[in-house]
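Example record used in the benchmark description.
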Amino acid sequence: RFMRQHDIPGCPDFETFDDREAACEYIDSYEGDLVVKPAGLTGGKGVRVVGDQVTAEEAKEYIRESDYDRIVLEERLIGEEFTVQAFVANGQLRVTPAVQDHKRAYEGDKGPNTGGMGSYSDAALELPFMTEKEYMEAVDVLRETVNALDGYKGVLYGQFMLTAEGVNVVEFNARFGDPEAMNTLPVMGTDLLDVLVAAREGESLPKLRFSREATVCKYAVPDGYPTNPAGGTRIDIDEESAGDALLYYASVEERDDGVYTTTSRSFAVVGVAESITTAEETAEEAIAAGGSGLRVRHDIGKPELVQQRIDHMAELRGE
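Model output (structure tokens):
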């Protein structure tokens, strides 16, 4: 509604419903597939995509059995998702490299949605399946959004779908992305504290500098995650055994004899290198030190999966 009101580009077709039965009737009448989105926080696990994850009948059953106060039904966009995060203050916008997260639980983009199994960024601001112009389309959407906001100060996270027709908005968040922040902050050459102080003091935000390096982030999660996770497994990895990768603990429990999994994502490793391929190899070497009882999407950042994204967009563009 905000995007419609301010004529911000990239807004998909959508309707919101407080009445579950009215939402189900809309699904029956809509020509095409829809995405079911609870209006609120769901830890990245609330969305259901008709024609991909569920049938129309299953979507209606999901709505009827849910306890969400409001449901958004949005046209299903076909393309490749990506994220651009920005620092915003004093009417200014400072953007970071594009990142692609992987929501599905299992390799090959199979299984239920998760909070994010891992992500990658390239040495350039854009990703391999997109052009610089398409990256700037997303930046323009963020800029027009900031112009329409009254005095917003903080991080603006824009998740987008790159389609054959251009860039569309999937969602906005007023926070860093998890895992996307682990891709962008390690390659940011500008001191984060300088950005935060300038925002607080009402000064001009410094220009952001980034090393021309790619990153690959991989999460280790407990067996059974996200539907029936089994916690209580000891985690063997530490900063030394992670080697050249960065290590970020997530949902873990510290005990006298070590660190153990809970029922959510356990830890992430991030490889940083001159190419996505080399960064993936660094992350993969580190994740092997995690121990047993953990599951990882090993395909994230591998050349085969990245090429699939490139080929997918080329097919959609008719190239």
